[in-house]
Specification:
By secondary structure, the protein is mainly beta. The chain is built from no helices and ten strands. Helix content is 0%, strand content 76%.
């Protein structure tokens, strides 16, 4: 049975380059959570805070794999599975890059009431490692 509800997402992104202290982005935004069978989808709009205004971000969780899709000003699709690598195209208004991700940690505790999704990965742009990234997304039900 499919369930869809409005949620609040607290998205924390960290990017670390060359052992500098991490660049941190934090965003609290409204979004939607859909649960259909064994699949959970979190969807929200990016803002100017993330530099991707006009972009819709969607995390799809299926078993031990998470897909991150962006559409709009930025177009990309990245797949995360702990211990595995994947490549994808990352399209921006300034050009298209090949992005390789190697997932070092993937964990989630999500139910219809909310929870947490964590992803840690190294990222390589055009096959040059650019740093380590980490997402921590807390999901809460929207108060009625």
């Amino acid at each position: 049975m499919m369930m869809e509800k409005e949620i609040i997402l607290f998205v924390r992104g960290e990017q670390t380059y060359d052992s500098d202290s991490p660049e941190v982005t934090e965003l609290a935004t409204e979004g939607r959570m859909t649960m259909d069978g064994g699949e959970i989808t979190l969807t929200y709009q990016e803002s100017e805070l993330t530099g991707m205004e006009g972009t819709t971000t969607r995390f799809t969780i299926r078993g031990d794999m998470v897909t991150l899709e962006r559409t709009g000003m930025v177009v990309s699709r990245m797949e995360f599975k702990q211990g595995e690598r994947s490549s994808s195209l990352y399209e921006t208004p300034w050009g298209t890059m090949v992005v390789d991700v190697a997932t070092t940690r993937l964990a989630h505790r999500l139910t219809e009431r909310g929870g947490v999704l964590e992803i840690a990965f190294t990222i390589a742009v055009n096959h040059q490692v650019t740093g380590e990234n980490r997402f921590k997304i807390r999901v809460k039900e929207m108060a009625r």
